[in-house]
Amino acid sequence: MTQSIYDFPALFRAVHMEQPDEIDQEAAFLRRLWKRHYPRRVRRVLDVASGDSPHGIILIRSGIKVVGVDRSASMLASGRLHSAGSGAIKFYRRPIERFTLPEKPFDCAFFMSETFPVMTTNRSILGHLKSVGRLLKRGGLYCIDIDRHDGLEAGRGRRLWRQRRVHALGADIEVREYRVAAPWYAGAYFYELCCKIKNANRTVVSTRDLVPVRYTLPSHLELAARASGSFGMVACYADLSLRNPLDRGAASDLNLAHSCARGDFNAG
Length: 268
Fold this sequence. Notes:
This protein is α/β, with parallel strands linked by helices and 268 residues long. Helices cover 24% and strands 32% of the residues.
């Protein structure tokens, strides 16, 4: 069976071209966002689709209690290892489309790393928002990070989008990325990530991940928030500055920008 890149947490972020200080900048953005839109001190936050919760590891240093939820056992195991100590993050393995946690309500929640669009059906998005809404205090905030897809054309069939080499932790990784078309009515495409990992001991491991990506706009998030009966959109930012309008957001090297929507909890 072909393995997943998520089975290799130590290599995962290098393959996904995470930039130096990127996570620190996003964690700082979250703190500024909370200060602007949340009237009380943020003490407890939920990291949704947390992986090994790199944002949470930064936030716990400032005394914030962090709980992570994700479906990947290997990423959660890595998170438990790296956050071990008195301020350790508590992790739960759950599907993100619909879940419950044995936790008291949180002040805020966040869904970073542009992963939200993997939920491609209305049912899964609404189930997700209701699940998060039930875990927040009244007036709690939910920050969602989505892709900016400038000029995206999935085309037909399977098309090579990009190929590159990555060197990390003694491994040489050949990376091929494909865009695979979905039916037009899906409003989505598939992102296929294929890696050949050559380790220092000369062993070779191949991974393949096929990730659905729904074309998600801030207006889609606003509509979904209202339809869920749990949130209402109160702010949307094109990047981490808290200043630029959507049409002027600074693009990164990947031609992406952070577009963060914040929801205000209204009902369970």
